[in-house]
């Protein structure tokens, strides 16, 4: 019984440390100056919100929806190619997977739908998606 109590106390301490570290990261992220670091700190939460919104949008084709959902699951998954606790490059695999999924969706979903689903700074998504494609490029014999 004493052994179980020790495990529970250890688990409680670990949980408090985890929640405390998340709270500290949130406070520090809010204090970042405007610029690239602040944009990167907000990128993953903005991507998660965008995935949730696009997943339910009927204007999103099935293939794009699947790519978006897979990216959302990748971000939510605790298993990563690069562990999150590694400074600077930890969230890199999440950012790359979500960026690729949004670029893929950006070729199939009207740009205004993506922009409406994006809660963050519009210039960040515009930079990620690249310049808008003209309809002439999408004509017959092109691709």
UniProtKB/TrEMBL annotation:
It is found in: Endomembrane system. One of its GO terms (cellular component) is endomembrane system. Residues 64-100 form the DUF1232 domain. The chain crosses the membrane at residues 6-28. It is a multi-pass membrane protein. Keywords: Membrane, Transmembrane, Transmembrane helix. InterPro entries: DUF1232. Its main location: membrane. It comes from the Bacteria. Pfam families: DUF1232 (PF06803). This is DUF1232 domain-containing protein. It comes from Actinoplanes auranticolor.
């Amino acid at each position: 019984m004493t052994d179980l109590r020790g495990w529970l106390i250890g688990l409680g301490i670990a949980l408090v440390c985890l929640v405390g570290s998340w709270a500290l990261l949130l406070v520090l992220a809010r204090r970042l100056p405007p610029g690239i670091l602040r944009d990167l700190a907000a990128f993953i939460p903005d991507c998660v919100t965008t995935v949730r919104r696009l997943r339910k949008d009927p204007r999103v084709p099935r293939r794009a929806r699947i790519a978006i959902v897979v990216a959302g699951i990748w971000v939510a998954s605790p298993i990563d190619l690069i562990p999150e606790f590694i400074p600077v490059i930890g969230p890199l695999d999440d950012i790359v997977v979500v960026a690729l999924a949004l670029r893929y969706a950006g070729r199939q979903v009207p740009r205004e739908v993506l922009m409406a689903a994006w809660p963050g700074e519009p210039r960040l998504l515009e930079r990620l998606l690249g310049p808008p494609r003209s309809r002439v490029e999408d004509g017959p014999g092109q691709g």
